[in-house]
Here is the input.
Amino acid sequence: MKRIMLAAVLLAALATWAGAATLEEKVVEHTLKNGMKVLVVERHTSPTVAAWIRFRVGSVDERSDERGIAHLLEHMLFKGTTTLGTKDYAAEKPVLDRIEEVAQALTAEKALREKSDAGKIAALEKQLAALEADAARYVIKDEFFELYSRNGGTGYNAFTSRDGTTYLISLPSNKLELWAAIESDRLQNAVLREFYTERSVVMEERRRSYDADPESKLWETFIASSFLAHAYGQPTIGWMSDIENLTRSKAEQFFHSYYAPNNAIVAIVGDIDTSATIALVERYFGAIKPGRQPSPVTTLEPPQAGERRIELVADAQPTVMIGFHKPAIGTPDDYVFDVISMILGSGRTSRFYKKLVIEQQIATDIGAFDAPGHRYPNLFVVSANPRAPHTTGELEAAVQAELEQLKTTPVAARDLQRILNKMDYEEARRMGTNGGLARNLTEYEATTGSWRYMTEQRGIIASVTPADIMRVARTYFTRENRTVGFITTQGGGK
Here is the structure.
């Protein structure tokens, strides 16, 4: 009852800001001459605005010698520009240039591995440390954050995925010009200061959050084993040896190539005037020159010819992951997978949760989702933890039984209606905030080619039939299309 009442409240809130207009009518699109796409929505519910910039370049777009660079560059773009984050850029720049010379030599020497000169490495490391200490004299830490914070900004952040990189902020609507000034300056004049210090930070992040965490390690191995050819198999953070060999020069080249207005989608949602906002964006971003668009990833993942199984032995909670290759977002069968995902693994009313967690009590938690990206063919993944004394093998068999049932037993009409009701609730919840709407606009514009995917998806899903679900289940949930990964405890216990 509470969920129904909350959904009603949220839907009423949406109706209030939308008035008689639909979202299709509320979103105003504008494309600058340099290719930057701007999506503007007026919402006068509070004197705030959310501003999101999504760049259509992620780790899937990296070359083999650039793996991890999109993620590291996300870190670096908080370091400032020629005017922000520095006390004296004219004095700082020669030191930064010298740092790059020494760091390039050090990276090249270390890349020789067993043939490297230990004495030369030690000397270069000492020289680099001295130069970095010298450069630190000019750095003003976190000046972006401080500027936004002093002016009421909240939620200043960024994230990188296989498919793209996003920078976001919420702030008082009368401070939108500050956002335009800062972000246009960053796009034109970013300085990747403290690069090698930050590279070490990312290497430590990799050690702590991936190498030392069994479930994350299983996830990386599971994805890498699922994609032998396609770049979706590479971790966004990069493998350790990838990160070790990234240089500031490579990052600057990647930045200048792809972080350009023609690869950017801007969503501005909140208490604004549409015409004035578009004029503001034109004034600050309109003169920036376009860059290269990333070439489409043309590598196709070859069809699997048999099941792949990955075991990780660790002193950790047993886990099982099951993945099946499937089409990319926006394709006809992907909509059917949206329905399947909600039937099986979306919340406490899903089949997986009711049967395996509540009734049979062989799992502590379970979920179903798409991974690791959306622009290209991806995976339908089921991830679960067995409840002791049950094993990963028992849980895997129970999951497979539910998948087999989808092949032969039509889904009831009431279950399909429940999915549509849940979609309505979730969409109302997500779009009840400026940031939630801005995220959806940039995400769908980048991954599907049009933000209108978010308004069209429900209608297409409403047309999915029980026969469609059985056909898709029979087509994709096959042994030869399956990858299974699991953690077993040390000593062989599953």
